[in-house]
Write a structure and sequence with these properties.
Strand 1 and strand 2 form a beta hairpin. The protein has 536 residues and is α/β, with parallel strands linked by helices. The protein is built from 19 helices and 17 strands. Helix 12 runs parallel beside helix 13. It has a 13-stranded parallel β-sheet with strand order 3-5-7-8-9-10-11-12-13-14-15-16-17, with no helix packed on it. It has a two-stranded antiparallel ribbon with strand order 1-2. A two-stranded parallel sheet has the order 4-6.
Length: 536
C-alpha cells in the first residue's frame, strides 16, 4: 500500500516482520528447551542438560536475544525488521551452543572417538507441538531458523498442526530446497488449515516444488482436504519420489478423481511398505485406481483403506490386488460396504497371507456367509495373528463354529473384537471354548450381541484365568440382574478387568412374548448341549 509523505509524494509502506508476537516468542522458548534437553545434533556432540535447567536457560536466552534484536531494530526504524529477526535467531543459536559446551550432563569426551554418531543421521525438526496456530512470514523466519544452520543434520521434519500462509511458505520454500537432499521423512499433514482454497493450493505447490527431487522414505500429507486439485498441487514432489516406503493420504477428500491422480503421480512404488487412505470418499471407481497401486507394491506390509465408501466392486478389486502383496502384516479395510461377495473374494486372498498379524474387518456387511469364508481362510493362514476385528457384520451363531475353530488356532491373539453382532448365548458359548489357553490375550469385546446370563458367564469364566488378560467389554447385552451379580463374582479378584455394564438391558429386548419359562432353566439346557463342544 502507498502512503502520502509530508511533501505530497507517495512512499511505499513495507510490511514489518519485527517485533515477533508473544506466541512466536513462547514457541521459540519451547523449541530451545527441547533442543537443550532432547537428542539433537549438538547434544550428541556436547551432551544434554535436564529439562528443568533447559527451561530456565531457554527463557533467559530468549529474553536476552530479544532485547539485543529490539535495540538493533530501534537503531534502524525504517527497516522491515528482517535484520533484527536474523540477529534474534542467531543470538539464540549461539547462546544455546554456549550452554551445551559449558554445562552439559553428558561429557563431550564420550563422543571424542567418533566424528559423527549414527544417531545424528536421524535428527528431527518438529514444530507440531502445542495448539494449532497460523504461521506467517515473521514467525516462519524464527521458527525455521535452525534449518538454516550450516552443517545441520536434520533428516526428519514435521510441520503438522501449523497453518502456513503465502508469506510463511515463501520463507520455508528456499530453506527446504537447501536441505532437501538430506531429508528422509517429511510430515506436512494438516499444514494449511483455515486457509482459502486458492492460498492453500499455492502453499502446497511452493512446498512441493521446494522438495522436488528429494529422496524420501516417509511422506505424510494427510488432513489437508486435498481433493484432486490438492493432489496435483503436490505433483512435483510426488512424481520425483523413487524410494518411498511410507505414504499417508488420510482424511484428504480423496475422491475417485483424486485417487486416479495419486495413481498417476505416485509411479514408483517398488519400495512401498505402508499405504494409508483412511477416511476419504474414494468409492468403487477410486478403489480401482488404488488397486493399481497395490499391484505394483510387492513389498507392502501395512494397507489401510478404511471408511472410504468402497462397495462390492471396489472391494473385490482391492482384494484381488492384495493377492500380490504376500508380505502383508496389517490390513485395515473396516467401515466400507463390501458385502458377502467381496468378503468371499477376500477369503480367497487371505490363504496366501502367512505373515498377517493384524486384520480389521468390522462393518463390512459380511454376514454369516462372508464371515465363515474368512474364518476358514484365516484358520489355515496367518499363524501369528494378534488382532482380529470383525465387529458389526451381522454375525450369528451359525458362523460361530467356524469362528471358534479359527480363534482356537490363533495362540498369539492379543485382541478380539466381535462387538455389535448377533451371536447370542449359543455363539458366545462356542467362542468361549476357543479362548482357552490363549496366554497372550489381553482384550475381548463382545458387547451388543444379545447375550444373556449363560453366554456372558461362559465368556467370563474362560477369560479370568488367562495370565495376560486385561479387559472384557460385555456391555450392551441382555444380562439379568442375577447374571450381573454372577459376573461381578467371577471378576471379584480382578474388578478392573470387567468393563462397564451401564448399557446392559436386563429386560432382554429380543425375548419372544411366548417364551416366559425361567431363564436359568433355558440357559442351563443350552450350556449342557454345548458343554462338550470340540473346537477343531
Amino acid at each position: 500500500m502507498d502512503a502520502k509523505a509530508h511533501n505530497g509524494e507517495r512512499r511505499h509502506t513495507t510490511i514489518k516482520v519485527w517485533p515477533p508476537t508473544q506466541n512466536t516468542r513462547q514457541m521459540l522458548v519451547e523449541r530451545m528447551k527441547t533442543n537443550l534437553s532432547a537428542p539433537t545434533v549438538f547434544t550428541q556432540k556436547y551432551g544434554s542438560i535436564t529439562i528443568g535447567e533447559a527451561a530456565k536457560h531457554a527463557k533467559r536466552i530468549e529474553e536476552s536475544a530479544y532485547t539485543m534484536a529490539n535495540q538493533h531494530y530501534e537503531r534502524e526504524p525504517d527497516g522491515d525488521g528482517t535484520s533484527a529477526v536474523q540477529l534474534y535467531a542467531s543470538e539464540c543459536s549461539k547462546a544455546m551452543l554456549e550452554v551445551l559446551k559449558g554445562g552439559s550432563v553428558t561429557k563431550e569426551k564420550e563422543l571424542a572417538t567418533s566424528e559423527v554418531s549414527p544417531t545424528l543421521s536421524e535428527a528431527s525438526f518438529d514444530i507440531s507441538k502445542g495448539q494449532r496456530a497460523f504461521v506467517e512470514e515473521d514467525e516462519a523466519l524464527v521458527l525455521l531458523s535452525p534449518l538454516k544452520e550450516p552443517g545441520n543434520f536434520y533428516t526428519k521434519i514435521c510441520f503438522s498442526n501449523r497453518s502456513f500462509g503465502h508469506g510463511a511458505a515463501r520463507v520455508a520454500g528456499p530453506i527446504l530446497a537447501s536441505i532437501k537432499k538430506q531429508l528422509k521423512e517429511v510430515d506436512l499433514s494438516d499444514f494449511v488449515a483455515g486457509r482459502s482454497e486458492a492460498e492453500a493450493l499455492d502453499v502446497m505447490k511452493i512446498f512441493s516444488e521446494a522438495l522436488e527431487g528429494s529422496s524420501l522414505r516417509y511422506l505424510n500429507i494427510s488432513d489437508n482436504a486435498l481433493g484432486e486439485k490438492g493432489v496435483r498441487a503436490f505433483s512435483a514432489l510426488l512424481q520425483s519420489q523413487t524410494c518411498l516406503e511410507e505414504l499417508y493420504l488420510m482424511n484428504d477428500g480423496i475422491s475417485q478423481e483424486a485417487a486416479h491422480a495419486v495413481c498417476e503421480l505416485v509411479s514408483s512404488t517398488k519400495n512401498l511398505r505402508i499405504l494409508h487412505f483412511h477416511n476419504n470418499m474414494t468409492g468403487d471407481e477410486g478403489a480401482l485406481a488404488i488397486a493399481d497401486i497395490l499391484k505394483r507394491s510387492p513389498l507392502l506390509e501395512d494397507f489401510r483403506c478404511s471408511s472410504t465408501r468402497v462397495g462390492t466392486e471396489g472391494g473385490i478389486a482391492l482384494t484381488e490386488a492384495l493377492a500380490q502383496c504376500v508380505n502383508l502384516k496389517k490390513l485395515d479395510i473396516r467401515d466400507n460396504m463390501y458385502s458377502v461377495d467381496a468378503g468371499i473374494k477376500l477369503s480367497e486372498t487371505l490363504y496366501s497371507h502367512k505373515l498377517l498379524s493384524e486384520i480389521y474387518l468390522s462393518y463390512l456387511n459380511l454376514e454369516d456367509e462372508g464371515t465363515i469364508a474368512i474364518a476358514n481362510a484365516l484358520k489355515e493362514s496367518a499363524p501369528l495373528l494378534s488382532i482380529l476385528d470383525m465387529a458389526g457384520n451381522d454375525i450369528t451363531a451359525e458362523a460361530a463354529p467356524s469362528l471358534s475353530a479359527c480363534i482356537a488356532r490363533k495362540k498369539s491373539l492379543v485382541k478380539l473384537n466381535l462387538s455389535e453382532n448377533d451371536l447370542k448365548d449359543e455363539g458366545a458359548i462356542q467362542i468361549s471354548k476357543a479362548l482357552e489357553e490363549h496366554h497372550e490375550l489381553k482384550e475381548v469385546d463382545i458387547s451388543q450381541n444379545s447375550l444373556r446370563r449363560a453366554g456372558s458367564r461362559a465368556i467370563a469364566q474362560a477369560l479370568v484365568p488367562l495370565p495376560a488378560f486385561k479387559l472384557l467389554n460385555i456391555n450392551g447385552n441382555f444380562i439379568s440382574d442375577e447374571g450381573i451379580d454372577e459376573l461381578t463374582t467371577i471378576f471379584k479378584e480382578f474388578p478392573s478387568k470387567l468393563g462397564p455394564l451401564d448399557e446392559n438391558d436386563p429386560e432382554g429386548e429380543d425375548f419372544d412374548n411366548n417364551e416366559d419359562e425361567d431363564e436359568d432353566n433355558g440357559q442351563e439346557e443350552l450350556e449342557a448341549k454345548l458343554k462338550n463342544l470340540e473346537v477343531n
